């Protein structure tokens, strides 16, 4: 087995690379999906979030109001740390369970958007960073997501810098070209990682 950390800034194409690696047979463990699972309605994770932040963060149906939670923690580092102290241990535990189920020869890809920020890069056999220039990130968020330039730049500023991500990389996937070029790059990357597994 080879344990791979996959990361990239917002609108870098990390999710596309993750999906392409899965097409090649990699076991993808998506931290964002797990983070949603661990605070789903009826979970101990959601109960802990409500105990910490209050029931105002629930929708009428009893689900976590993700936009409201985002507004609360986005500009408040202390609130974000408190939320992360609840969610991160639950995500780590579930990720470890999924990894334990993978075959010995598997390429196990941990898709972690904030890998550079979390200081866990050293726990992987390889770290893949999907990279595009900041201006490309902004252009994609404006064109594809309908964000304002200011909102896009603020979200980028809240993440690790491009340089900080590249500093933890053992492999860099340039995603400034076409989807076909990206497919070729990811195929070569998977072959290399599978050879090491």
UniProtKB/TrEMBL annotation:
<keyword id="KW-0963">Cytoplasm</keyword>
<dbReference type="Pfam" id="PF01121">
    <property type="entry name" value="CoaE"/>
</dbReference>
<keyword id="KW-0067">ATP-binding</keyword>
<dbReference type="InterPro" id="IPR027417">
    <property type="entry name" value="P-loop_NTPase"/>
</dbReference>
<keyword id="KW-0418">Kinase</keyword>
<comment type="function">
    <text>Catalyzes the phosphorylation of the 3'-hydroxyl group of dephosphocoenzyme A to form coenzyme A.</text>
</comment>
<protein>
    <recommendedName>
        <fullName>Dephospho-CoA kinase</fullName>
        <ecNumber>2.7.1.24</ecNumber>
    </recommendedName>
</protein>
<feature type="binding site">
    <location>
        <begin position="11"/>
        <end position="16"/>
    </location>
    <ligand>
        <name>ATP</name>
    </ligand>
</feature>
<keyword id="KW-0547">Nucleotide-binding</keyword>
<comment type="similarity">
    <text>Belongs to the CoaE family.</text>
</comment>
<comment type="pathway">
    <text>Cofactor biosynthesis; coenzyme A biosynthesis; CoA from (R)-pantothenate: step 5/5.</text>
</comment>
<dbReference type="GO" id="GO:0004140">
    <property type="term" value="F:dephospho-CoA kinase activity"/>
</dbReference>
<keyword id="KW-0808">Transferase</keyword>
<keyword id="KW-0173">Coenzyme A biosynthesis</keyword>
<dbReference type="InterPro" id="IPR001977">
    <property type="entry name" value="Depp_CoAkinase"/>
</dbReference>
